[in-house]
């Protein structure tokens, strides 16, 4: 049986944060054929479900779901297969570091987005992700009260995020996986957490094989799963760094690249393409 794995932002979603009708129709064809479909995103669970409810309701009860870059994994029936959190001590230390760097920071605890500054960054992020957020006086106090930090996120200009990633790796690499999910977003999750690691858990649980699996992504946080199959697809809107990890570079997310690839695979039972 074939399996298809899709990232959301920059892959299924276009630049307007929409899934086009062409892409929806192609995904419906996959489901009609009994193909396994898995969604793997860096988004928080509620934000992922907003997209699924709006554009892909036919996947509810059908698709395993991976949220928070692999820190939260659900089976088809929304039972938790896996969940990882960041140790409080490490999360607090990281927040202090980001404060000193004067970088916007936010924490995700029990699927609640928490910030300590109600600034333009969080307002823009909230609109992009279609989620609400909670503002607190002190994020470190909140982390110590609530526990269970599943992810931290830093937001800044692209050049700042690239430099910040180097600094964070120098200080936290033994405890955290520090990856870009978007050119202005830097995600921090538990060291052993990634989309690829989560996908392995899903495949083991459902006894699926990577030999006949097609994986689609566009960002640095997709690399760990793109490396799991010979049928790896990166959209043309991706960076050159990510494109190096794909067998195929397909049209961009604003050109229905995913639908293009699915239709070719369905029509010929394989994929050949030169862009």
UniProtKB/TrEMBL annotation:
Q: Which SUPFAM superfamilies does the entry mention?
A: HAD-like
Q: Name one GO molecular function term.
A: phosphatase activity
One Pfam match: Hydrolase_3
**InterPro entries per UniProt:** Cof, HAD-like_sf, HAD-SF_hydro_IIB, HAD_sf
Q: Name one GO cellular component term.
A: cytosol
Q: Which Gene3D superfamilies does the entry link to?
A: 3.30.1240.10, HAD superfamily/HAD-like
Q: Which domain of life is it from?
A: Bacteria
**Protein's UniProt name:** Haloacid dehalogenase
